[in-house]
Amino acid sequence: MDLLHSQLAALQQKLSFVATDPIDWKFYVQAFSWGVTLFESYLLLRQYPLYSKTSPPEVLADHFDAEAFTKSQNYGKDKAKFSLITGLLKQALDSAMLHYGLYAFAWNIGGRSIAYFGYGSEYEILQSLAFAIVLFVISSIPSIPLSAYQTFVLEEKHGFNKTTPTLFVTDLLKSWAIGFVIGMPFLAAFLYVFGWAGDRFVPWLMAFLLAFQIIMVIIYPTVIQPLFNKLSPLKEGELRTRTESLATKLKFPLKHLYEIDGSKRSSHSNAYFFGLPWSKHIVIFDTLIKESKPDEVEAVLAHELGHWYHMHPTKLLCVSQVHIFTILAMFPAFLHAPQFLRAFDFSQAVSVRPPTIVAFLLFQMILSPLEAVIGIALNFLSRQFEWEADRFACEIQDRLSAPEMKDMGERLSRALITLHVKNLSTLWVDWLYSAYHHSHPTLTERLKALQAYQSKRDGAAKKEL
Ligand SMILES: [Zn+2]
């Protein structure tokens, strides 16, 4: 522990310029965030002309008829336009909020609202909670019409929307209520740990965040998700038998097998698993069950179990711990720097003893270009995991000595194609756009790889004979 703290102290020494040098932080944040937004707009402009291509890539030509292809191109085009406009609009709003010192304003409103109830600025956690609410209200107002447009115009036009206006409003209110019920105690505890641990907050805060993540894994599916969707046990039948037998053979600790009514809101479809290491649950969307045959859904699940087998969620959790550690390790230099807050229009009185939440929020803005780079790296890693899970599905016959699974790769290919056709997913993808945004390889890439795994495996099997 002492070694950790001496290393952290050395890092703070390196960053001590934050407290001493006069730096126009606000200008940097403006430049960084516009830089990221303009780069994202540039990527959309690279991708956009591909939506005008008139035929699908060669490998997919047999699977997409002209109608399905045109539909997916039109959907892609509309989504790209929407992303371009909303991206620029959101950035313009954020930029204006920053320019006009809205964060300092929100902090003062927070202070005034707690003063109304007789609490002074010495109640920093209370004022922080009020500040968070004010900021939340200010920033969520413009996003409501955008989200309504996306659901009722864009998704509706392409036949995906199943949400009614009543459902839209109740969903919104429910998610706010949940955000409040979970977010407020979380924020209060987070700030409390900060204050309590003093300069030695890094390991304590990491332990706190890890505990919070684990608690969320437990309560999300049991408490939160049922508020939005209905999870019902998967009916007896071929799919259930196949899934249970697959789980048993792989020693996957399957506790519950659910079907989720994803079709209540949208026709997009999928499957996933979650839970603690010794008790897992698999959830399959009703839309996937409707659109694919049981043996194809089984192949999708084989892919999902490949993620489990290769411990992808655990690996991602470790990566996120390193990420959190880096952020926290750099933070004190910004927390103990009144000049840093002054650069964002906070008054002298507030800046002298910087409130943790304010310093942390502004510090996050400074990190935006770094976060963009980390996002690219994480997407890259996620794509590697997808390849690995596809390969797992393809080679499962050898792992389980189950010759009846020899066509798992083909079944997965068929399921992926169906998913793409039904979801009108984009078929032509610009490589840079994909490297930045995609957590999954493109369909073309996956089909090619699945074929390659299959023929490599068949070749190896022949040699053995
Ligand atoms: Zn996957």
Strand order of the largest sheet: 1-2-4-3
Q: Hey, roughly how much beta strand do the residues contain?
A: under 5%
Low-confidence segments: none
Query: How many beta-strand elements?
Result: 4
Please tell me how large the radius of gyration is: 25 Å
Average pLDDT rating: 88
What small-molecule ligands were found?
zinc ion
Looking at the structure, what is the overall shape? Answer: globular
Please give the alpha-carbon distance between the first and last residues. 57 Å
Share of helical residues: over 70%
Largest sheet: 4 strands, mixed
Task: Summarize the structure in words.
It is a multi-pass membrane protein. The active site is at 304, 390 (proton donor). Residues 47-230 form the CAAX prenyl protease 1 N-terminal domain. It is found in: Endoplasmic reticulum membrane. Keywords: Endoplasmic reticulum, Hydrolase, Membrane, Metal-binding, Metalloprotease, Protease, Transmembrane, Transmembrane helix, Zinc. By secondary structure, this protein is mainly alpha-helical. Among the domains are: 1-62 and 296-465, no CATH class; 229-291, Zincin-like (2-Layer Sandwich). It has 22 helices and four strands. The chain has helices at residues 2-14, 17-20, 25-47, 66-99, 102-116, 124-140, 143-157, 165-197, 201-228, 238-250, 286-291, 294-309, 312-330, 332-335, 338-342, 348-352, 356-366, 368-394, 396-399, 408-423, 431-437, 443-464; strands at residues 231-233, 254-260, 271-276, 279-285. Strands 1-2-4-3 form a four-stranded mixed beta sheet, sandwiched between helices. Strand 3 and strand 4 form a beta hairpin. Helix 3 runs antiparallel to helix 4, helix 18 (368-394) crosses helix 20 (408-423) and helix 18 runs parallel beside helix 22 (443-464). It is globular. The termini are far apart. The mean pLDDT is 88. Bound molecules: zinc ion. Zinc ion binds at residues 303, 307, 386, 389. The site of zinc ion has 4 residues, from helix 12 and helix 18.
